[in-house]
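yo

u said u wanted the structure for the complex thing, so here. seqs first:
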Amino acid sequence: MKGRFVLVLLALVAAAALAWWALRSGGGTAERPREAVATPSAPTPGPGQRIMLLFPGTDGLLHPELRQVALPTDVDERAMLIVNELLAGPRSGLLPAVPWQATLLDLFVDDSGIAYVDLSGPPAPLAGSNVELMVAYSIVDSVLLNCPELHSLQILMNGHEIPTLTGHLDFSRPLVLNKRFISKR
Amino acid sequence: MKRLTIVLAVLAVLLGLRPVAAQTTGTVSFRYAGHVVRAPLFGSRVELVPVFALLGATAKFSPAMGTWGVQLDNHMIQFSPGLRVVLADGKLAEGREAPVASPGGIAASTDFLDSMILSPLGFHLERVADGFRITPGGRRGAPLTVRATAADFSTTTTLVLTMGRPAMAHVNETRPGSVTITMEDASPQLDRATVLRSRRIRGLEPTADGLELSLAPGIGLLSWHALSDPPRVILELGPKAAPPTSAPQAAPARRPTRKGVRPIVIDPGHGGKDSGAVSGSGLEEKNLTLAVARRLARVLRRMGFAVRLTREDDETRALTDRTALANRLDALAFVSLHANASRAASVRGAETYYMSLDSASDATAAAVAKLENAAGSTARSGSELDMILWDMAQAEVLNESAQLALSIQRRLNSLLNLPDRGVKQAPFVVLTGATMPAVLVEVGFLSNPKEARRLADSAYQDQLAGALATGIAEFLRSGR
Ligand SMILES: [Zn+2]
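structre next:
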């Protein structure tokens, strides 16, 4: 127990040292080359592209649905297309990704490869961790699986960061790909 | 391990540039309980070690870690030269400036000593003619209205003191049958409407610097904790002698520490304004989780464990308060109870979650990256840094959390006889920053009519509590 606290404290010490280092090296971080957002492996536009969208099934897990779409090269446009396809709803017997009439208000990608997806919020409070997990990971997993140059995604609502949607999952930070909620069957 | 190595390497660099106070500029006196010490001064900073000795606190420096630890009664304060942050009873706090290494050990401003060290230890500093006086309890402050309510249970009584505004409270059993409650920077006054009906409480009276609670013969303070929103102090009162345990195998792997027996903290999910999920027949998640939590606490106590609930009633409670309570009590395990809802009525079964650290899987790399980005702009780095550090705290016990989750889920599966929804990982708020094995259990789906009916049945709630308790006990006794 004490050991863990000490570790936390140690980490604080390390963090302070690193901050001091970074400051002293005189903006060395600014010179560091940014990772290019668009990688050469990004798909080229064309009508024959297949994307995989994830929708909740009646088993409380995510299931893939494949679609043919013309996929933009630009990562923000590609992410935007994925989210809009998701919001348009499933074509098979799956459930909608978002259980309210949500619209995509904004989507932007920062330098570090984090996508921010701003949706219109639910008209009434929702409940259940499963509901929350399905909303979050249908969006996060669908976007990240189709946009490999992104490493995480944060969902905003009505232009604001939200702490959580139904009181369980942490929405205040970007979420990474989580395949644990994708059905194995 | 890689993370620890990097941290240690960086620490080695840091030790070379740790700020040091070398030049004494005089001395200053500290008085406490009739004793006086003179502590060397270094400009605005004062040597702390003589002050700790005056209080009778144990102060130790760990050269390997570069940290100081000060222990007194139930309190443990940790800090490092050159760092503004202090870990007081498991909670991070940030001071206005950092202490520095000094010839006698460590030196800091009297402001730092007062607010970061003495205050969490239950003292405060007063300036007197030739130095300072250390006084137990908080500063005399503005009047603070306190409403007291008590509830008698079969063997214990819970006393809840609801405060009109937040104030740091200290509770001490000064002598058998007498408990003092002091509130920092406040003069507590009892709400006139307060009428305590409890067979274990003789009276509750305001005194010069707090409240004095008199108890019935043989009754003592078992434990206490503070909660926010609304701010309140909760005292658990009962017979001081430990109740006899019946079965010989009921002796759990108790690990007594300086703080006494470490409890298992059970968190009944949701509460108050937040009902959580609601079944078709109107069963609310907040009520179900409280009912199961109470039953679970009863079973665990029968097994010989100490148990604390994060809420005793239908109260609104911040997610972070729930975790903070478990950290502060140095809990053996933290179990958050929930009932699920799905849009598909057919979904049923229980599942157990533990923290997913995906978002900081390489916590050190993430911390470094964040710090590099934030080196120029410190505005937003504080809370982010905390988050990363708390992730690291949970990372240390992640394997144990996984074991606890498996142990619980195994028991639920055999009880429920349902398709196994399994152990899963997700970044849940209530598990973030927990420094002990921590899990969130979804005991079933209220959106499934059949399961909701079963969950509403008190006999089934008892079975659930039994399965949960067995899973928790098996984990705790597995000789980790
Ligand atoms: Zn819940």
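The first strand of chain B starts at residue 26 and ends at 32. The domain at 142-239 of chain B is CATH 2.60.40.3500 (Immunoglobulin-like).
cya
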